[in-house]
Amino acid sequence: MSSSAERSTKIFTWVWLAPGLLFFTFVFLRFVNSGYLLVLFPPVCAWLGHWAAEWYTNLHWPRLLKNGAVALTAASNIAIVLFAPAYCSYASVQRFEAELHSIQTALPQIASSRETLIVGFDSHFLGYRHAGYYLPEYATIQYPEVKLVAGKRIFAMQHRNTELATRPPAAGYRNFVLFPLPSDDQEYRDYLKKVEARFPKQDLQSIQAGGNKFITGPIADLPLLFPSARQLAQR
How many domains does the chain divide into? Predict the structure, then answer.
């Protein structure tokens, strides 16, 4: 690559990366959101590949030694993808899928879809979307509300159909259940405790099933999570 072409490519790379890096640094820097950083990886990986090719070409090592270094690097990369304690590793995805399956099996045994509304969270693992798509017979709503120009709205889903509601579709339901978050992550556990703290302790019930803890409460307590649902408490 000529020096002028390399300079133009570097400028293009920074134009691509800089807005995202600034956004994640000053607005969105939380480990739970780290998966979104994957959108910045293509140019980084392209440069790493370019530098690796130059290194391989210019390094005056015996071919066997250079090939061994390449193989070791490739093996390390594969190990990271398979086993790293990261959002996108194969081990994390497998653990998530097993936990989701256990919830999918256990929840219908302790809570009827006719009487129970699921409250899911805006979360990558075991979030509102997973609750809605993997338990389609239940009505599922997302906490927290979203702020739009038209006002606060609540994402609601049933039978895999999503809508933006002005208040939870709580009519006909007796109670709600908080969709469990991953139990092996301290940040998730702390977040769930903050949500539980919004309710009177005597109103919540903890049920263990399938290795998961399900927190349930009366439907009349939903206004404590959703200001737009305050009228429900008067019904």
Answer: 2
